[in-house]
Amino acid sequence: MRQGYQSWVFSTKPVIAAAAAIGGPFEAQGPLAEDFDTLHGHLMIGQDSWEKAERVLLEEACDKAIEKASLTKEQIQFMLAGDLMNQSISANFSARTLAIPFLGIFGACSTSMEGLAMAAQLVDSQAADYVLAATSSHNAAAEKQYRYPTEYGSQKPPTAQWTVTGAGAAVVAHQGSGPRIQSATIGRIVDMGMSDPFNMGAAMAPAALATLEAHFRDLQLPHDHYDLVVTGDLGKVGHSILSELLPKHNVHIPLERYVDCGMLIYGDNPKVWSGGSGCGCCATVTYGHLLRRMTAGEWKRMLVVATGALLSPISYQQGESIPCIAHAVAIEAEQL
Amino acid sequence: MTFLWAFLVGGTICLIGQFLIDVVKLTPAHTMSALVVAGAVLDGVGLYDPLIKFAGAGATVPITSFGNALVHGAMAEAEKHGLAGIITGIFEVTSAGISAAIVFGFFTALLFRPKG
């Protein structure tokens, strides 16, 4: 049911019956390695191209999530998935393999929560009993498409981010045990005129702010309602910008409860510049690390705000600014 | 002293390149092209040869020297064959470098089958 201008409150509280996170070799060296279901030792994952490797990641995440939910893929009624590749080939080709009725979505790095919000809406409105929401990204495939050939070894500034090699999937169910999806806020596009693709954290921070403002306004919740507020991939740069913007806009989220997936996934590794990014960043950290910690009782309510920079290599080459978006999904622990 | 000047001049050219990437926000490809054109223009006004004489490898190793070589080839041919020489001579001096890039690029691709 819609509440306020742009939020949904799910009266049936759809359940995240299971979630899975698959990662690559670099993620395996990070501080969250323990929270992945499967980690791969090589970027190629036994395939002959980066794109095929990404597809394997996504298929594995979907299979694993379905398996952990003790379901078969025939029982999943709809699959919502997207990725960063042109024409969303990773999602489309994975859906070909899985043969589940499929809706392709694109929200760049916000795809994880875009998919989860829509899956919850489908289940809440009784349009489905089980919906799979999934997304993926691959470091080398994204570099090749968005930036320079990997062999070229182009320099990057400290504001740049490292695309996560990984995939995350969640099975949303009408009943069962697991964390529950309480509400979601669909973001508007925010474009502050920034055009530097090597500083996407700064470009996306205002979009995250707009969605957070809308969420608390629509749901009329106190700003300290959540034990954890987490943004998708703002990185160190975007995290510090948003931390400054929030109090200025009278959103008084206790800043010690605000974290960013892009900072969590690789810790303080200077090799990743400002932090992790990509569809797989928010997806693997949320579906791996955060949900596990929630199940372990570390926090009861969290708000995941996945941020996306909706640029294309062509729009960037033509000097266009970067439209950004953020979608928020509120997740509660099973036992409050 | 020769080494010092080579280091300082070569280093300054590279510093300008880094500046173009970090401050002017040019892409690496635009930066490279800008330095090639700068080398060509400097040679056109007769300044690059004195710089090579002064700094040696400091001026011949950076990419600016490629622009210098393009102009040298074109001018030399133009003297012999007139206007058409500008076109035929432009790669006269640099053909070794360009051919080597193509030939070695081909063999490298054969061996390593790049995917990126």
Topology:
The complex is a heterodimer of chains A (336) and B (116).
Chain A: E1 2-3, E2 7-9, E3 15-23, H1 25-28, E4 38-39, H2 50-68, E5 78-83, H3 89-98, E6 102-104, H4 111-124, E7 130-137, H5 139-146, E8 162-163, E9 166-173, E10 180-185, H6 200-219, E11 228-231, H7 235-248, E12 258-260, H8 261-264, E13 276-277, H9 279-295, E14 301-309, H10 313-317, E15 324-332
Chain B: H1 2-22, H2 28-44, H3 48-55, H4 57-60, H5 64-81, H6 84-89, H7 95-112
Helix pairs in contact in B: 1-2, 2-5
- Strand tally of chain A, please? 15
Strand content of chain A: 15-25%
In whole angstroms, the N-to-C terminal distance of chain A is 22 Å
Q: Using only CA atoms, what is the Rg of chain B?
A: 16 Å
End-to-end Cα distance of chain B: 43 Å
Low-confidence stretches of chain B are none
**Elements of chain B, N to C (H/E):** HHHHHHH
Contiguous helical run count of chain B = 7
- The CATH C-level class name of the largest domain in chain A: Alpha Beta
Concise structural overview:
The complex is a heterodimer of chains A (336) and B (116). Chain A is of the alpha/beta class and 336 residues long.
Describe the structure in your own words:
The complex is a heterodimer of chains A (336) and B (116). With 336 residues, chain A is of the alpha/beta class. Chain A folds into 2 domains: 2-173, Peroxisomal Thiolase, Chain A, domain 1 (3-Layer(aba) Sandwich), CATH 3.40.47.40; 180-332, Peroxisomal Thiolase, Chain A, domain 1 (3-Layer(aba) Sandwich). Helix content of chain A is 34%, strand content 23%. Chain A is built from 10 helices and 15 strands. In chain A, the strands form 3 sheets. Chain A has a 7-stranded mixed beta sheet, with helices on both faces. In chain A, strand 1 (2-3) and strand 2 (7-9) form a beta hairpin. The mean pLDDT of chain A is 96. Chain B has one domain. Chain B has helices at residues 2-22, 28-44, 48-55, 57-60, 64-81, 84-89, 95-112. The A-B interface holds A 48-50, 140, 143-144, 148-152, 154-155, 157, 196 and B 21-22, 25, 28, 114-116.
